[in-house]
Design brief:
4-stranded antiparallel sheet; about 300 residues; Rossmann fold; about 30% helix; binds adenosine-5'-diphosphate; single chain; globular; alpha/beta
């Protein structure tokens, strides 16, 4: 792929503490153009990381360089390149979708004429063309999320940061949102956080597994799947055995197979009674191997 420009974000030894709580331990990550999925359970530190990358909250230690310059030094110049969809959203219910986008464009310093054109285009792109004149208080959850995505794309940012963009969406809207993300230009840095594995399946060029403030693993989905595939095991079971198996192996996936139920787990070595899983290797297995096993309920 030919690079149009050399967007490069380097995160070095990034640390964040909230008082005594260390939310990010020592994050090292380099991002170039492409779609990055940050995957981790609730409390892993995803929002904290994104809030630091958007320069919304201060870090405790470390550096973040954009094209070689510290983002704090770049200040406004950096923030202009950013589009951000926060996890917590305060929307102005009394505004129409269009008025909200106009307002956000002015906050971002997008010239009015440019903003107007962009808003028409963005509303169309997120399927809200007809809803632009409707007050946000009448929007469904999915419509609100799509409006927030449109807001993040105002000003044609080269870095797009989305925090749990599919949160609270029904399956249809979830797929829709994922498709919008896939369609974003490959000449941008797109970072999106989620705790739902299927959100990044088939979308992310690069997956970053975050657990308890640390990056546990990162890489292209295929690589990550390849790496764990000899560590996934299955055991056939019937309904009345499920409880006992779960007791022995608390983190696993119950699967409906053609010939009945199977319980699927990740382990270093094959446990007695299990067989190597042969098919359907996916990111769920990667998650189970790297993170699931570490989560203590
Ligand atoms: N403002 C805050 N003050 C204190 N602790 C916080 C604050 N924000 C987040 N945390 C804690 O930091 C950790 C990471 O939180 P967060 O970044 O929101 O994780 P995620 O987005 O992955 O769910 C959690 O343990 C959370 O309770
Ligand atoms: Mg979060």
């Amino acid at each position: 792929m030919v690079r149009v420009n050399d967007m490069r974000m380097e995160i070095k030894r990034l640390q964040k503490k909230y008082g005594a709580k260390t939310a990010l331990k020592e994050i090292d990550l380099t991002l170039e153009s492409g779609i990055y999925g940050i995957l981790g359970e609730n409390g892993a530190g995803k929002s904290t990381l994104l809030n630091i990358l958007t320069d919304n909250i201060p870090r405790t230690a470390g550096e973040i360089l954009y094209d070689g310059t510290e983002i704090i030094k770049l200040g406004k110049q950096y923030r202009k390149k950013l589009g951000y969809m926060p996890q917590e959203q305060g929307l102005y219910g009394q505004l129409t979708g269009k008025a909200f986008l106009l307002y956000m464009a002015s906050v971002k310093g997008v010239p009015k004429k440019t903003a107007k054109n962009q808003i028409e285009e963005l509303l169309e792109r997120v399927n809200l063309k007809d809803a632009g004149k409707v007050r946000i208080s009448h929007y469904s959850g999915g419509m609100k999320q799509r409006l927030l995505l449109a807001q993040a794309l105002l000003g044609e940012p080269e870095i797009i940061i989305l925090d749990e963009p599919t949160a609270g969406l029904d399956p249809k809207e979830r797929i829709r949102m994922r498709n919008f993300i896939t369609e974003l230009s490959s000449e941008k840095i797109v970072i999106f956080a989620t705790h739902i594995v299927s959100d990044i399946e088939c979308i992310a060029d690069y997956v970053v597994l975050l657990h308890d403030g640390s990056i546990i693993q990162k890489g292209a989905p295929i690589e990550l799947i390849d790496e764990v595939k000899t560590h996934i095991f299955e055991k056939k079971c019937d309904k009345n055995q499920i409880r006992a198996i779960k007791n022995d192996y608390p983190y696993g996936n119950l699967m409906q197979k053609r010939d009945g139920l199977a319980y699927r787990i990740a382990a270093e070595e094959k446990p007695p009674g299990f067989t190597e899983a042969k098919e359907d290797m996916n990111l769920e297995d990667v998650y189970m191997y790297h993170i699931g096993r570490r989560i203590k309920d």
